[in-house]
C-alpha cells in the first residue's frame, strides 16, 4: 500500500490545553449557513473497496438523527475571528513548524527537511495557518479553507463556535447528498485529466507536475465548484477534513496491522485534497479513509463543523 498524502508530524509534540470561551457571533454565522441533513439509515463504507487495508468496507448502515453541517470548511476569515477573540495559538505556531508540499514552496525558500516516507512533504519553520507556504510566502487568502490545523486546533475552534466535528457516518451521509450508494458527491462519474474536473484534485504526474486543469494549484476557495444535493461544497478534494473519531481498522490480517502500526491515538480524516490523484492517492472517494496524529498539521488539512438539531442554530433577531 502506498503511503498516503497525509503524513504524521515527524516528531510528535504534547497536545495543547487551551480552552477558549465560546464565540457566539462566529458560531451563529457558521450555524446560519449550515444546511439540514436528514436523519435515518445512513450508508457508510463501500462494497467495492479500493484500499482494503484502510477499512473502507464493507458497506453498512447506521441510524442517524437529523443534524446540520456547515456548507463549507472553516475559512481563514472565520479562524482569524477565533484567534482574535481568544488569543489561541495553534499547534503549528506553538511547535514552530508545519508540513508544506514541496510544490507550494515560494522561490528562495531555504533548504528544508523532507519527510522520509513522503519526501514531497517538507518540514518548514514558520509555516502556519497565517502563512500556509511559510514566512516567505503570501498571507492566507480570506475565503480559502484554513489549513495547518491539527485535530486539537479543530476541536478547540468547534467548542468555541458551539459546534463539533462530524463522525464518519455523519460525514459520509452528508457527502452522498441524498444520492445513495455513490462514489462521489455528484454520483459515480470519475474525475479525469481531460474534460471532467468537478472538484479540486491533482491533474498530471504526481508529485512533479500539476496541470491545474480544475483551475487551481493548491487550495480553492471554500465555496467553489458545484455543491452536492444537500448544498455542501468541496466534500471531496481541496482539503482533508478532520472527523471526531479515532482511526480504527478492524482486521486480523498481519499485513493490515503492520500498515497501521504506531497509529495509536490517530484521528480519522475524510475527503481527500488537492494533492490526490488516482495514480497515487485515490482517496477522494466518499468511502475512502485516512489518518493523522492529533498534533499533525499540513498545508492540505482543514475541517468543517456540524450542529446538533435546530436548537443549536443561533439566528440573529
UniProtKB/TrEMBL annotation:
Residues 1-21 are annotated as: Disordered. SUPFAM superfamilies: C-type lectin-like (SSF56436). Residues 32-306 form the Sulfatase-modifying factor enzyme-like domain. This is Formylglycine-generating enzyme family protein. It comes from Sulfitobacter sediminis. The lineage of its organism: Bacteria, Pseudomonadati, Pseudomonadota, Alphaproteobacteria, Rhodobacterales.
Amino acid at each position: 500500500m502506498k503511503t498516503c498524502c497525509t503524513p504524521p508530524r515527524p516528531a510528535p509534540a504534547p497536545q495543547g490545553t487551551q480552552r477558549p470561551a465560546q464565540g457566539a457571533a462566529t458560531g451563529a454565522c457558521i450555524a446560519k449557513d449550515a444546511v439540514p441533513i436528514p436523519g435515518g439509515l445512513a450508508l457508510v463504507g463501500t462494497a467495492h473497496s479500493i484500499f482494503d487495508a484502510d477499512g473502507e468496507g464493507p458497506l453498512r448502515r447506521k441510524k442517524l438523527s437529523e443534524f446540520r453541517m456547515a456548507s463549507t470548511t472553516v475559512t481563514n476569515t472565520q479562524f482569524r475571528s477565533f484567534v482574535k477573540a481568544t488569543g489561541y495559538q495553534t499547534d503549528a505556531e506553538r511547535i514552530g513548524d508545519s508540513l508544506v508540499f514541496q510544490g507550494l514552496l515560494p522561490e528562495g525558500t531555504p533548504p528544508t527537511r523532507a519527510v522520509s516516507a513522503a519526501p514531497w512533504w517538507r518540514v518548514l519553520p514558520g509555516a502556519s495557518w497565517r502563512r500556509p507556504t511559510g514566512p516567505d510566502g503570501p498571507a492566507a487568502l480570506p475565503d480559502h479553507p484554513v489549513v495547518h490545523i491539527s485535530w486539537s486546533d479543530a476541536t478547540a475552534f468547534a467548542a468555541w463556535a458551539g459546534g463539533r466535528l462530524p463522525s464518519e457516518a455523519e460525514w459520509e451521509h452528508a457527502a452522498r447528498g441524498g444520492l445513495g450508494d455513490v462514489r462521489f458527491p455528484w454520483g459515480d462519474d470519475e474525475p479525469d485529466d481531460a474534460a471532467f474536473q468537478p472538484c479540486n484534485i491533482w491533474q498530471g504526474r504526481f508529485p512533479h507536475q500539476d496541470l491545474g486543469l480544475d483551475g487551481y494549484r493548491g487550495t480553492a476557495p471554500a465555496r467553489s465548484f458545484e455543491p452536492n444535493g444537500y448544498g455542501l461544497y468541496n466534500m471531496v478534494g481541496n482539503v482533508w477534513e478532520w472527523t471526531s473519531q479515532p482511526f480504527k481498522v478492524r482486521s486480523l490480517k498481519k499485513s493490515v496491522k503492520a500498515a497501521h502500526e504506531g497509529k495509536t491515538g490517530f484521528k480519522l480524516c475524510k475527503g481527500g485534497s488537492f494533492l490526490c490523484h488516482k495514480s497515487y492517492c485515490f482517496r477522494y472517494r466518499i468511502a475512502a479513509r485516512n489518518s493523522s496524529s492529533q498534533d499533525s498539521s499540513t498545508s492540505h488539512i482543514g475541517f468543517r463543523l456540524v450542529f446538533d438539531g435546530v436548537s443549536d442554530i443561533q439566528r440573529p433577531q
